Amino acid sequence: MNLFDSLLTTQPFLFYVFMTLYVVVVLIIAAAVMNDAQNRRLTNRGTFLVGPFVWGLIVLLTGGFTGALAYWLIHYSALRYVSSKE
């Protein structure tokens, strides 16, 4: 058994693979939220309280899914406040 075969069968290797995939997914979610927030700003719909960069940072700091859920609830769900000018 060579070193590469033993590396593939260890738990740390699987941990690093899954953590790398998780980080990539969180970065993609943060980029998507920043892109959507920037599009909202460009179409004069705006974002709640903070700009696109801060929303992307919120997504990164909360691990991706919680921040993205908060962004969606605030900007797209039926729970959000809809002004008469929209």
User: Shape, please?
Assistant: elongated
Q: Give a count of the beta strands, DSSP E runs of length 2 or more.
A: 0
Low-confidence stretches: none
Helix content: 55-70%
**H/I helix tally:** 4
Sheet with the most strands?
Answer: none
Strand content: under 5%
User: By helix and strand content, what is the structural category?
Assistant: mainly alpha
Q: If you average the pLDDT, what whole number results? A: 85
- Give the C-alpha Rg: 19 Å
Distance N to C terminus:
66 Å
SSE order, as H and E? HHHH
Would you give an account of this structure?
It is a single chain. The protein is mostly helical and 86 residues long. It contains 4 helices and no strands. The chain has helices at residues 3-8, 11-42, 52-61, 65-75. Helix 2 packs antiparallel against helix 3 (52-61) and helix 3 (52-61) packs across helix 4 (65-75). It is elongated, with a radius of gyration of 19 Å.
Topology:
Blueprint: H1 3-8, H2 11-42, H3 52-61, H4 65-75
Helix pairs in contact: 2-3, 3-4
Quick structural summary:
The chain is an all-alpha fold and 86 residues long.
